[in-house]
Amino acid sequence: MSDHAWIKEFAGAIIVCDTQGIILEMNDRAIKSYESQGGAGLIGTNMLDCHPPAAREKLQKLMERQESNSYTIEKKGSHRFIYQSPWYQDGKYAGFVEIVMTIPAEIPHFVRGS
């Protein structure tokens, strides 16, 4: 991902792991967001270990099935959108990406015509 400089300072946290869950890369926001858990020191560790048992099990199944997942949470008064998805290299499953973005408490929803 180093050839995509925009990712480094992207406003959302981006964490990329391999097929086993080993963290390969974190952008600046992810490093700052997870500073209390080790920040950049998490690179090379298993991201499954950063989740409580129920979430770890769900994430493990998503990774095995190569399925995406998205949801919203509220943490310390901040609303966040979480998107987890497999990534591929040359058409072959290469791991998982988690993107966390802060969103407004009330967010517009539009239905677009075809």
Spell out the blueprint of helices and strands:
Elements: E1 13-17, E2 23-26, H1 28-33, H2 53-65, E3 69-75, E4 78-89, E5 92-103
Antiparallel strand pairs: 1-2, 1-5, 3-4, 4-5
Major beta sheet, strand line-up: 2-1-5-4-3
List the uncertain runs.
none
Report, as a whole number of angstroms, the end-to-end distance: 34 Å
Counting helices, strands and paired strands, the structural category is alpha+beta
CATH fold name: Beta-Lactamase
Task: Please give the domain count.
Answer: 1
Under CATH at level 1, the class stands as Alpha Beta
Work out the helix count.
Answer: 2
| Outline | globular
Order of helices and strands: EEHHEEE
Radius of gyration: 15 Å
Q: Which superfamily, in CATH terms, is the homologous superfamily?
A: PAS domain
- In total, the number of strands is 5
Chain-averaged pLDDT:
93
Strand content: 35-45%
Largest sheet: 5 strands, antiparallel
